[in-house]
Input
Amino acid sequence: MLNLKPIFVELAPGSTKRIELVSGRRPRLVSGSDVKQLADEMLHDEVVLDICRAHGGPRELDDLGDKPVRWVIAGPKGPISVTVSMKGREVSAVFVAATEPRRSTRPPRRASAEREPVRPEQRRSITVSDRRRVTQKPPAHGAPPAGRATNRAPTPAPARRRSIPATVAKEPATVAKEPAAVAKEPAAVAKEPAREPRARAQASVDPVLRDLCELADRQRATDIHLTPGRPAGFRIGGALREGKTILRQADIERILHSVMPARNAAELARSGGTCFAVSVSSSVRLRVNATQTHVGTKLALRMVRSQPPSLDSLGLPKEVESATTQPQGLVLVAGPAGAGKTTTLAALVDHVNGSRPVHVVLVEDPVEILIESRVAVVSQREVGSHTTSFHRALEGALRQDPDVVAVGDLRDVETVRMALSASETGHLVIATMNAPNARRAIERIIDVFPVAEQPQVRATLAGGLRLVVGQRLLPCADGVDRVAAVEVLPGSVALWNLIRDDKTFQLPSLMQRGKALGIIRLEDSIKALRDKGVISQATAEEALEDIDGASELARVEVAAPEQPGPPQEAGAEGSSIGTLWSRAGALWSRKGGS
Output
């Protein structure tokens, strides 16, 4: 939990600084136009409320509504006013220095030892005045005291002598009134931050970016492309369509710096590219990829779901849901870039989150879909912000008492090694990998290791693999949405034997005859979507031609040259024998020609 006590020293009386905690954003210290990020981790609603409770938050925070909750705490340099409010679906907390009570502008009274000595006639005058409670009107300036005759010159300021008791008598009333004015000041101070965070929240995101996101949301676009000197591009239904807004380099720089953290700004300047996720509003979240090109800064914005979807809404089969109940092992989500692997990973994690009281550690780069803990405890970590790399995060995760470990991407050998190690030590590991299909994903896990280690890796993978899900996104018939065509390869003895014996080239044959094992081929999924009318006939034919894996044997047969040979018998067996004769004839003719 974020510790604000060391930061409270910045909130001195009279200072304009304030601490802002808003759910879905990073905590920050604001002073005028200067903004300082206090942490790289984005806050959830409960995290903001827990921080407020740790700093004297009242019970009203449990039922936070439209009415703000305010209280005052003691800071190292004076009282601090805290205001917590609910804006839409966001929780906002503001810490500001409370205004000090106003002091009396009267000069301080001198102590009795510093007063001028009182002459006898003055003492008698004061005594008479006190007895009469100062009911008589003070004499005019220069007139002698009442009730006494004297030949001496008039006292320079007799009114001052007569007004001393009056001043003393009136001062307590004045001082008594000032606390009432002071008591009203905290209310005025507390009302001010209630309007300020909302104004800053709206001003923090560039208005052009906000308008583009709203337009993309209405058109159900998945990506926004911003290039200097060109219209904004929107990817709708898999196709890139141009908008009407043409942005300059200065516009893109302004949009980028309105949402980019300081760490990513330094990375962009150092390496020419960076990637991060940011919440534009309570319903819109973006994954931002910024790169330097020959025409300027290019932005690719991915529209991220505000909440994780359910497995049913994605159309995933029951075999995928049952894999999340495994006590240990490896569940792999494979597919090319942009195939929705992150969305499927979030759906799997959220299914565990709503069904099992376990601890889930999710490591991503960056954190895209925010998942709030429900039945389970979900800890989301971002590479670059909370940890230096995936494998370092997995090393730390094994010491955090996890039950489920989710990895955003298996990129390098160390990350794969840690994932396999966790899967065979009593943890369920759910990971994604860039691969065209299930077979290629299994081969890539093995090939990433040196040749000397591959036999041991095959044995470990054969003992821990529980499920491989391969998916691709295809445009729907309406031309707007996209749907996932999936292949499912559950763990079985037949699959484990092929992996252990280094016979993964036989996986297409296993998937073709393994429907009884719960295997679903990608071809069958595409054809089912075509038959239901979800995708068009042209889309299905194009997708079937691009499949690399299960139809590979058919491709070999089609590509084989036709050579004269024995007459082929009818049936599948005769066809295969004829193909073998044709290939043998092709080899013999090549040898004869050499």
Observations:
- DSSP finds 18 helices and 19 strands in the chain.
- The mean pLDDT is 77.
- The chain has four domains: 5-99+181-195, 207-304, 318-557, 560-593.
- Residues 158-204 form the longest helix (47 residues).
